[in-house]
Amino acid sequence: MSEFFAEFTQQTFLQYAVLTGILVSIACGVIGSYVVTRRITYIAGAIAHSVLAGMGAARYFQTVYHWEWLHPLYGALVAALISAIIIGLVSLGAKQREDTVIGAVWAIGMAIGILFIFKTPGYNEDLMSYLFGNILMVSSDELWLIAGLDAVVVVIGLLFYKQFLAVCFDEEFARLRGISVEFYYLLLLCLTAITVVLLVTVVGIVMVIALITLPAAVAGMFSKRLWQMMVLSTLFTILFTTGGLALSYGPNLPAGATTIVLAGAVYLAVAIGSRIFRTRHP
Amino acid sequence: MMSLQKGNITMMKTPVIEFKNVSFSFDSFNVLEDVNLTIEERDFLSIVGPNGGGKTTLLKLMLGLLKPAKGTVRVFGQHPVKARSRIGYMPQYSSLDPLFPVTVSDVVLMGRLGNGKLLGAYRGADKKAASKALSELEMSEMRNRPFSALSGGQRQRVLIARALVSDPELLLLDEPTSNVDAVIENELFELLHKLNKRITIALVTHDLGFVSSYVKRVACVSRRIVVHPTSEITGEMISEIYGCDVRMIRHDATAHEGDTDV
Asked: What is the pLDDT of residue B48?
């Protein structure tokens, strides 16, 4: 911890990492609250894993065809949005079982990504950082991209707050009030997709699902309104990403995993604590 | 004066709800068959019938959430989807997530969706309408309470307030008596009776105790539909209608003519 604070003022990559964590936390707090209350965590999980297809493909074209501009984050974004729309359209209209499609998108996305990475020449350490995140590797270009995407997600997520709230709480009633439930559901899934891509830079594909749900779940125990949940959830996410970074830096642990363990520990403590509190003060 | 008379004439001509020869089926199973039903202004109709008899389907056809396979449904003379802004709807509260972080006023404000501007928060007019609806239901003090902390009867009042907040001309309620005790049920009825002075009401219930004296007509639905004025209904008759499909249909033949001139 002390090493982290000592080096923070001198090392740009540490400042970028902390800034990335803070920026991403805002989108995570807003969209995570919708995801948790609308109960679409597993859709977020499927989108997260399908992102590997986009990252792997982008890396492959970068290396083999020298498309230098094709940053893996762009690939991730395209893959995430495609998956979100596929899952959204299936759950809205088609006569397929929704969970089957979620599982299929989840696994097929990973498989495509692994094929691309396997065929990309050279020693491949990318796979590990895609899967488990590497917040310390964020460059200034990436930071700008992250800030832009973050702004898009947060602005849209808050401008349509009343529609999203109504659609998440009571879809049928929202439809009767003239709200296009299909449009807002797809929009929410697309915002979730962008948020997932943002979180992949912090904790990696595998652990996104925890960062999108755990802070919102902790916040939910202290909130009686959705916007309060969003504010608290943002603060908890900032606490977890920054805390994870600080705790992991000295002993040289992976930051993503440390962040998730911290989030999980706080979630468990709060869940057990509130249970004990309730039985003592019924 | 002229315009007032004209208004009266159109009101007489256009019933609030009109079903003409409506059939509806799920897969190949007929849920409703050749249903004719007319609801006039300020009617108070209770729709009863066995589970799977088509009560909820009837309600969803009125709301335009389902399309009839045959026949036509008109609400205020319009396609139900177009008439939605004039309908207040109260779903069963058990269909809602009990953990959802919303307060009473958040829930009621949802009834104002589609009235105001697209982006941003609700306006002052929406908030005024919400507090008016809450005070009509004597729930003003509860407005900042979490919806999840309310009792069943209180939640129902909140959902009725949400249905009323956009000043509907027709109120549709799905199973408003499920999971509440007799006292609450009575209160609910007093309330609906008061509202019925200005709003047409139709409700669905599987609970026959709900045929209160305030209800003006009862529609018995079991694939077909039979409408009785409440005064004609006896307990014995209801129990007959309930269990037995055969009697239901025989009933239908006689009540059908009755229905057309109601």
From this structure: 85
Which of B101, B103, B110 lies nearest to residue A173, judging by beta carbons? B110
Residue B12 structure tokens: 């007489």
- Which ranges in chain B belong to alpha helices (H)? 2-13, 55-62, 80-83, 104-109, 124-136, 152-164, 182-195, 235-243, 245-260
Does this model's pTM top 0.90? My answer is no
For chain A, the maximum distance between any two Cα atoms, rounded to a whole number of angstroms, is 65
Beta strands in A89-223 (DSSP E): none
Distance between terminal CA atoms of chain A? 40
Nearest CA among B31, B32, B39 for reference residue B11:
B39
Q: What strands lie across the sheet with B29-39, from one edge to the other?
A: B29-39, B17-26, B70-75
What pLDDT does residue B237 have?
61
| A2-277 classified as CATH 1.10.3470.10 | yes
**Per-residue pLDDT, A48:** 96
B109 pLDDT tier (thresholds 50, 70, 90): very high
ipTM (interface predicted TM)? 0.87
Under 8 Å between Cβ of A160 and A100: no
| Residue ranges of domains in chain A | 2-277
Residue B254 has pLDDT above 70, yes or no: no
**Cβ pair A162:B101 closer than 8 A:** no
Largest CA distance in chain B: 56
- What is the tens place of the pLDDT at every residue in B145-189? 999 999 888 898 899 999 999 899 999 999 887 777 778 888 888
Which residues from chain A sit within 8 angstroms of residue B162, using beta carbons? 173
Q: Do A224 and B162 touch (CB under 8 A)?
A: no
Q: How far is the C-alpha of B162 from the C-alpha of B149, rounded, in Å?
A: 17
Mean pLDDT within A67-77: 91
* Three-state DSSP class for residue B28: coil
Query: Is B113–A229 a contact, with Cβ atoms under 8 angstroms apart?
Result: no
Neighbours of A84 (CB within 10 A): 26
Cβ–Cβ under 8 Å, residues B16 and B28: no
